[in-house]
Amino acid sequence: MKTAIVTDSTAYIPQEVREKYNIHMIPLTVILGAEVYEEERDLTAAEFYEVIKTKELPTTSQPPIGKFVELFEKLAEKYDEVISVHLSSGISGTYQGAISAGSMVEGLEVYAFDTEVSCMVQGFYAIEAAKLVQEGKSAAEIIPILDELKETSHAYFMVDDLSNLQRGGRLSSAQAIIGSLLQVKPLLHFKDKLIVPFEKIRTKKRAMKRIVELLGEATNGDSYYAVIIHANREEEAKEWKAELEKEFPNIEFSLSYFGAVIGTHLGEGSMGLGWMKKRE
Question: Which residues are within 8 A (CB) of 237 and not within 5 positions of it... i.e. 6 or more apart?
Answer without folding.
Answer: 228, 229, 230, 255, 271
